[in-house]
Amino acid sequence: MPYTYEYPRPALTVDCVIFGLDESQELKVLLIQRDQEPFAGKWALPGGFVEMDEPLEQAALRELEEETGMREVFIEQLYTFGAPERDPRGRVVSVAYYALVNLSAHPVQAASDARKVAWYGLNELPRLGFDHRQILQAAVDRLRAKVRYQPIGFELLPEQFTLSQLQRLYETILGVEELNKRNFRTRILKMGVLEEVGKQEGVAHRPAKLYRFNKEKYEQLAREKYDDLLRRGLDFDI
Amino acid sequence: MPYTYEYPRPALTVDCVIFGLDESQELKVLLIQRDQEPFAGKWALPGGFVEMDEPLEQAALRELEEETGMREVFIEQLYTFGAPERDPRGRVVSVAYYALVNLSAHPVQAASDARKVAWYGLNELPRLGFDHRQILQAAVDRLRAKVRYQPIGFELLPEQFTLSQLQRLYETILGVEELNKRNFRTRILKMGVLEEVGKQEGVAHRPAKLYRFNKEKYEQLAREKYDDLLRRGLDFDI
DNA sequence: TCAAAAGTGTTATCATTACACCCATGG
DNA sequence: CCATGGGTGTAATGATAACACTTTTGA
Prior knowledge:
2 copies of one chain form a homodimer.
Chain A: E1 3-5, E2 11-21, E3 27-33, E4 43-44, E5 47-49, H1 56-68, E6 74-81, E7 92-101, E8 117-121, H2 132-149, H3 163-174, H4 181-190, E9 194-199, E10 209-213, H5 215-232
Parallel strand pairs in A: 2-7
Antiparallel strand pairs in A: 2-3, 2-5, 3-4, 3-8, 6-7, 9-10
Chain A binds a DNA duplex through residues 162-164, 180-183, 185-187, 190, 200, 202-209, 232.
C-alpha cells in the first residue's frame, strides 16, 4: 500500500537517550543491539519511525516502552538531527529525546522482540551506529547544563534518598571529582525543596536522614522567584 | 513527478523566529503575510519545506535569506513542533529556528516575491496562522533564558555600542522596568569581555564610551571557567 | 547655565568557600 | 572500641544590592 507525494519527503524518526543510575550510583545509558541493516550487530539508541497521527513525544514514549517496558518517565525533547548523510538508507530526520529513569522503580525488562538491550556507562560505550554518538553527547551536555539550574536530577533517584546519594548523583552527572560536602548540603537545604521523611535503618554507620523532593514547593518557589530573576538581570555565568 | 514510499511520511518544514532591535531599541519579530491557503491573508513566521539534500539549519538560513535578504546572522535551533493537527493540510512537522539580527547592519529588503513583510513589537502582534503564536512564545522564552547566561544579546546590537544601549537591550529582552545602572555596569565590565573602542560624538550630553564585544576573550574565559563551573556544582537558580 | 545622559564611590548585607571537627551505628 | 559514613561550626572572602553623587557635552 504505497504512499505518493508531489514532492519528496524525508523519513521522520525519534531516538531516545535513556539515562539511569545503577546500584552503584553510576550514570548509564540504555542501548540496543541492532538486528537489521544498516549497522546490524552494532549498538544504537532506541528509536523508530513516527506514526502518521502520533505526536512526537508520544512516539518517543512508545519507543521507550517498547524497548524497556518503562512508562511515566521524565522525557524532554533534545534536538533534531537532520544531516543529509546521517542514515545510509536515505534522508532520515530524527527528533531526539532524552529520558531520565529511576532504575529501582523501573527494572529493565527484555525488549518484546528479544533484541539485546544493555546499560552502558558513559566511559565504556561501544561504537554506535548512525550519528548516535553525537546525539548521546548532546544529551550528556544538556543533562549537565540542565541539572545545574533545574531539579531534574531527582528523576534518577528513588523517591526517598539521602543527601550523600544526591551529592554522588551530582558528582556523577557533572563528571567531577567531589563536591564539598558541607557546602553542598547547606546549599541544597537552603533552597527549601527537600522534605525530611525518615532515617536509614540497618547500616553499619550513623544512619542518614532520608529526604524527598517536594515538587509543589519547588514550583511555588520558582514562581515567586521568577520576578526576582528578571529584575536581577544577567548572570552570564562564564 | 510523484514520489512514492512504502509508509506514509509527514511533510517537513522549517520556521524562523527572527528577532531584531529597531532604532528605538524595541525588540521586534519579523512576520510575513501569507498569500496562499491555508491562512491566506494572515500573518505567519517565515518558513518553508526542507529540500531533500539540505541540512536543516541551511534550510532555515535559506528561508531567512529569501524573505529578508539577510545573511550571516546568528541562528539556533529552537524546538521541533509536530502536533498532528498543527497544519490543516495534513501532517506537517516543523523544525523551528530563531535568529538574532542586527538591524543596522541588515536593513530589511522586500521579499523577492513581493509578499508583505513587517516587523512587529512583541506587544502588538497580529493573530498568527498555524501554531506560530506558540512557536514565537517558545522563542521569546528561550531568548530570555539564554541571554542571562550566554552573550548572545550582542548579536542584536551594532558592532559598537554604549553601556546604556546594552542595558536597554537587556531590559527589553527581559521585559523588565529598569536594571540598576551602577550594578549592571560593574558586573558586565568585571566579566572582562568588553573592549573600549572610542566615544560617542555630537550628542547633547556627556558622550558615552563605545564598546565592542570581544568574542575571543569570551571564549577563552568560558574555557577557563568551565572547570570551575563544574567544581562549584549546582546553582538551581530558583 | 541648563537639560540630559554618562559615569563613579561607598556601604551594608548576603552568599560562597574552605577546613576541621563531632556523631551514631553495626560489627 | 573501631571503622564507616553522616552531619555540623565557623571565619575569611567575595559578590550583590541600594542609593546618591559627580562629570561632560550641546544647545
